[in-house]
Write a structure and sequence with these properties.
The complex is a heterodimer of chains A (90) and B (395). By secondary structure, chain A is mainly beta. Chain A has one domain: Folate-binding fold (2-Layer Sandwich). Chain A has two helices and six strands. Chain A has a four-stranded antiparallel β-sheet with strand order 3-4-5-6, with no helix packed on it. The radius of gyration of chain A is 15 Å and the shape is globular. Chain A starts with a strand and ends with a helix. In chain B, 54% of the residues are buried. Chain B folds into two domains: 180 residues, FAD/NAD(P)-binding domain; 153 residues, 2-Layer Sandwich (D-Amino Acid Oxidase, Chain A, domain 2), CATH 3.30.9.10. In chain B, helix 2 crosses helix 9. Chain B is globular, with a radius of gyration of 21 Å. Helix content of chain B is 27%, strand content 25%. Chain B starts with 13 loop residues before the first strand and ends in a 31-residue tail after the last helix. The chains are: A mainly beta (90), B alpha+beta (395). The interface between A and B is medium-sized, with 22 and 24 residues.
Chain lengths: 90, 395
């Protein structure tokens, strides 16, 4: 992976982007158990595969979602973060 | 150097997944110190082909937390006698280790580390820029004017060793005590019975065992997934490169956290250089030009005279990172499953001590006192063992 298609700016070199980690759903801290909260704070799904991730185009400060295969470093698709609610089942 | 058994037995007392330095050292000490030699080491590739043969071979104990200092100091003690113990020349070479400080903030961290080290009888001290210049006259102490060296943490026991020989030495010594080493044997599944380890499935057949030690570096999340465990470990590639051999000019090991550089010169004259982690998760050992360019730029800040020296090789390993830059070792929520993981960018130097402590843990079923603060459960207690300040470079 040497280039990323930014939903706002188009195809740009990877050096213009910052990685923001995988998309995770925060449990409600008022109702979840200590185990659920610990799992959210620390644990990650470290197994290779296609993941939804936060990426930022640094120059324009634009955050978006990339679906990327962490086994072979290829991006499947990118889209603006406001589509996340549609893509994430409640 | 060691036998290549034709087939797996039906069962073993202990199965060790991963034939790197850590797994082989644990096998050796299990046989030697605990009398357990009915052990299989399963390696999906070949011995020394993983991170044991991909690191930059630096050995040191100048850590930040008392737990880390005690643990790595025991490792340095074991390293010093290891060539004799394994009857193989590991080219263990004590060089001295400078961690350069370019800012007041890093001078403060160096002082902190030096005081913690001295408290535990580890030889570390803060030195000024003139001392560094005397030790390494070829260094541009001003770094071209934009990142002048203010001082350094000097750690006299800092050393390098020939890393693949460590794996071969432990493999041969373990083999002589009856341990079986199975290369090209990939674990495909782990079967549990009543919540404890029962069988290990491989591409060469299934074996029964009560105890499994997982020592697979960057492949840890995949193995944990086989038994349904989630962990804080996430995998980033760590790259390194080596120059053509040149006349000896660099005796100590030089590290600069701010410039993201660590470098030493081998007995053959090559410069072995490393830098920071790749910036995002990836389970692949590809090399990038970005890495070579940025590391070379910073190398030239420190050593401008190297501008004509050629890079001859670059490679990568998979680093399993933890949130606190300390490993995850010992018993796990699954009975009979022991973990030696989270070795990120700091595993090679811990090879002997992880072998002695993990063999003790596997044999007794309880964590060795030296690894208690590296326990899996520390995250649940929010008691992290913060070693980030002692990571070789800023991440």
């Amino acid at each position: 992976m040497k280039q990323i298609t930014c939903p706002l700016n188009g195809l740009r070199p990877v050096s213009e982007f910052a990685y923001g980690g995988e998309v995770r759903t925060m449990p409600d801290p008022n109702t979840c158990t200590d185990e659920q909260w610990t799992d959210y704070v620390f644990n990650r799904s470290g197994v290779p595969g296609i993941k939804r991730e936060w990426w930022c185009h640094i120059a324009s400060g634009f955050w978006f979602i990339a679906e990327r295969d962490t086994a072979n470093d290829t991006i499947v698709t990118t889209y603006p973060a406001d589509r996340l609610r549609v893509a994430t089942p409640a | 150097m060691f036998r290549r058994p034709e087939r797996l037995r039906d069962g073993y007392d202990v199965v060790i997944i991963g034939g790197g330095g850590h797994g082989l050292a644990a096998a050796y000490y299990l046989a030697k110190e605990h009398g357990i030699s009915n052990v299989a080491v399963l390696e999906k590739g070949y011995i020394g082909g993983g991170n044991t043969g991909r690191n930059t071979t630096i050995i040191r104990s100048n850590y930040l937390t008392p737990e880390g200092v005690r643990f790595y100091d025991e490792s340095v003690r074991l390293w010093k006698d290891l060539s004799g113990e394994l009857d193989l020349n590991l080219f263990y070479s004590t060089r001295g280790h400078f961690t350069l400080a370019h800012t007041d903030a890093s001078m403060r961290t160096m002082r902190w580390r030096a005081e913690v080290n001295k408290h535990h009888q580890v030889r570390s001290e803060v030195v000024d820029a003139a001392y560094v210049k005397r030790a390494v006259p070829m260094m541009d102490i001003e770094c071209g004017g934009h990142a002048p060296v203010l001082g350094a943490l000097y750690h006299e026991p800092g050393a390098i060793a020939r890393h693949d020989a460590v794996a071969w030495g432990y493999a041969r010594a373990a083999d002589r005590l009856g341990v079986e080493i199975h290369q090209e044997t990939e674990v495909t599944g782990i079967e549990l019975k009543d919540g404890r380890v029962a069988r290990v499935r491989t591409n060469r057949g299934s074996i029964s065992t009560q105890k499994v030690l997982c020592a697979v570096a960057g492949f840890t999340p995949r193995i944990l997934n086989m038994i349904g465990l989630r962990s804080p470990i996430y995998v980033h590639p760590l790259q390194a490169m080596v120059s053509e051999p040149i006349k000896r000019w660099l005796d100590p090991i030089i590290v600069s956290g701010s410039l993201h550089v660590y470098v030493s010169q081998t007995a053959r004259g090559e410069l072995v250089m490393g830098s920071t982690l790749d910036p995002y998760e990836l389970h692949q050992t590809r090399s990038t030009l970005d890495f070579t360019e940025s590391l070379s730029t910073h190398m030239l800040d420190l050593f401008p005279f190297l501008s004509e020296v050629k890079i001859v090789r670059q490679w990568a390993g998979l680093a399993d990172m933890t949130p606190d830059f300390a490993p995850i070792m010992g018993v796990t929520p699954v009975e009979g499953f022991y973990l030696d993981a989270g070795w990120g960018t700091w595993g090679f130097k811990a090879t002997p001590v992880s072998g002695t402590t993990m063999s003790h843990t596997v044999a007794s079923g309880a964590n060795h006192p030296l690894i208690e603060s590296f326990d899996w459960k520390r995250f649940g207690r929010f008691e992290l063992t913060g070693e980030k300040g002692a990571a070789s470079v800023g991440h």
